[in-house]
């Protein structure tokens, strides 16, 4: 049966006979008969447009970038396209991906975004050359999309009253005027916006002493503006720096005046404004300074309660006077008095999970608990900065010294001896700063997993050996008892007869069973002459 094939105007036909290419056919109608052993393959010669799938590539600095291409191509040599590759469409995509990977791998992420056109030209040239080898003409190649997970954009608006400081990789580049600017993450750039309008700031400067040692608080109002934006980067925070500079100058001026002069002095603000020239070093111009108020702070009386279990150390003008007992004490605002309270109850100090190497180089973790109380409040405050921290350090160092000189087995076998040794060494040290260490105990000893398994195996083997020894002793005892019984039965036949009678009595007590025992004639032969006839 014949087969009709139509080759359309935009197609080319490839005639094969017995699997062998014969010729190229133009558009038209063709009839193939079975006896000819022929077939015709059609090939579309129109221009094709292909949008590739998004594919990620790695740059030379190990960044990921994803690209989508739009490629237009057409078949110019149908015979070559059919005979050179299995699928020319897939081959074009593969060649495109290979060329892209080749050029992407040789560039950084920044150069790819900066030189996209150059990258596209190189890829296109390589794909065109590769496609010609199998009869394909690549007309155009475009990048439809290029993205990176690490690339983001940020639009920054700088208003009319602002200036922008552009930094690239942490280095100042230039000052930006008002407008919209877009920063890409690969540029490693930052814009700092600076407000150039005049700003009003209220400042409170507290605890300034006058010439006659009266403490005052001063409220200021200052007006300033940024005149040189690039210089504000010389300080971390120019607002804080302004406060610091004005506070220092104000303290110097007030220190030269009595409280009466300070309250009635109108020239302090003017003098202060003339002296504040340091701010120009970081681009700030102070236009005016006004003192709003100068006040002497009121100090309230202080009430201190000392409980039954506490002691108080009374200091006057920084000098210790006496130890005070429990009660309520009122310190007037004008009195230069300070009271330190100490708790005399028994307390505990825990040294948590210390990692220490033993003498046999095994790392163990030990938790230590010490019980102590204050016996000399004066020494506890005067001899050390913090008696609790000092006790902690003494316990920690003494523990390390003792552990590093002992084997693991010694530590595990006699924890009480170790605790006693620690107590004997730490107690004298604690007495130097008024602490009585009453007891030290080892709370936890944590061994490494491997060492713990070894000790468990030793304990298991020891217990198994004990069990075997007990079983052996029991077996020997049973054998000895049996030997003694056999000897008694051999030496006393009547005992043997008595045992036989007990067995018969036990058997006879069971009902419902008929038991026949032969040889009863001699049962009483040796013991009783009346039973010699064998009847029971």
From TrEMBL:
It holds the Pfam family Band_7. SMART domains: PHB. It is found in: Membrane. SUPFAM superfamilies: Band 7/SPFH domain. Residues 3-160, 161-303, 306-459 form the Band domain. It comes from the Bacteria. GO terms for cellular component: plasma membrane; side of membrane. It is a single-pass membrane protein. Belongs to the band 7/mec-2 family. PANTHER family: BAND 7 PROTEIN-RELATED, BLL5629 PROTEIN. This is Band 7 domain-containing protein. It comes from Uabimicrobium amorphum.
């Amino acid at each position: 049966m014949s087969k009709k094939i139509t080759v359309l105007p935009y197609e080319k036909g490839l005639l094969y006979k017995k699997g062998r290419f014969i010729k190229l056919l133009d558009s038209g109608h063709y009839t193939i008969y079975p006896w000819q052993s022929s077939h015709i393959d059609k090939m579309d010669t129109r221009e094709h447009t292909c949008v590739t799938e998004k594919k990620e590539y790695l740059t030379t600095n190990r960044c990921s970038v994803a690209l989508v291409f739009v490629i237009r191509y057409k078949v110019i040599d149908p015979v070559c396209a059919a005979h050179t590759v299995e699928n020319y469409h897939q081959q074009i995509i593969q060649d495109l991906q290979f060329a892209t990977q080749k050029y992407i791998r040789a560039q950084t992420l920044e150069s790819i975004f900066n030189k996209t056109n150059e990258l596209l030209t190189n890829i296109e040239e390589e794909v065109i050359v590769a496609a010609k080898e199998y009869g394909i003409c690549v007309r155009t190649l475009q990048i439809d999309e290029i993205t990176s997970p690490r690339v983001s954009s940020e639009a920054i608006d700088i208003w009319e009253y602002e200036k922008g400081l552009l930094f690239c990789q942490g280095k100042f580049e230039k000052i930006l005027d008002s407008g919209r600017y877009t920063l890409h993450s690969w540029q490693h750039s930052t814009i700092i916006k600076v407000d150039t309008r005049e700003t009003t700031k209220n400042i409170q400067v507290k605890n300034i002493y006058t010439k006659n040692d009266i403490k005052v608080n001063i409220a200021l109002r200052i007006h300033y503006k940024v005149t040189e934006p690039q210089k504000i980067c010389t300080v971390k925070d120019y607002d804080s720096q302004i406060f610091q500079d004005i506070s220092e100058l104000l303290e110097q001026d007030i220190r030269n005046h009595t409280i009466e002069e300070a309250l009635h002095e109108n020239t302090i603000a003017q003098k202060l404004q003339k002296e504040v020239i340091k701010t120009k070093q970081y681009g700030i111009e102070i236009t005016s300074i006004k003192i709003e108020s100068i006040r002497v702070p009121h100090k309230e009386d202080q009430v201190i309660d000392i409980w039954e279990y506490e002691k108080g150390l009374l200091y006057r003008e920084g000098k210790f006077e006496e130890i005070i007992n429990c009660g309520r004490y009122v310190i007037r605002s004008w009195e230069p008095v300070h009271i330190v309270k100490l708790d005399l109850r028994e307390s505990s100090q825990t040294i948590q999970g210390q990692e220490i190497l033993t003498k046999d180089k095994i790392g163990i973790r030990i938790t230590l608990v010490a019980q102590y109380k204050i016996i000399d409040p004066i020494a506890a405050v005067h001899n050390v900065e913090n008696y609790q921290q000092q006790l902690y350090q003494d316990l920690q160092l003494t523990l390390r010294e003792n552990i590093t000189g002992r084997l693991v087995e010694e530590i595990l076998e006699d924890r009480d001896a170790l605790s006693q040794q620690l107590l004997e060494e730490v107690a004298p040290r604690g007495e130097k700063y008024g602490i009585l260490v009453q007891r030290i105990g080892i709370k936890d000893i944590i061994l490494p997993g491997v060492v713990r398994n070894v000790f468990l195996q030793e304990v298991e083997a020891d217990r198994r050996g004990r069990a075997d020894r007990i079983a052996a002793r029991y077996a020997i005892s049973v054998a000895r008892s049996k030997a003694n019984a056999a000897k008694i039965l051999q030496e006393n036949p009547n005992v043997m007869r008595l045992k036989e009678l007990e067995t018969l009595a036990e058997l006879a007590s069971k009902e419902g069973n008929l038991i026949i025992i032969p040889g009863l004639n001699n049962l009483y032969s040796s013991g009783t002459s009346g039973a010699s006839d064998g009847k029971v």
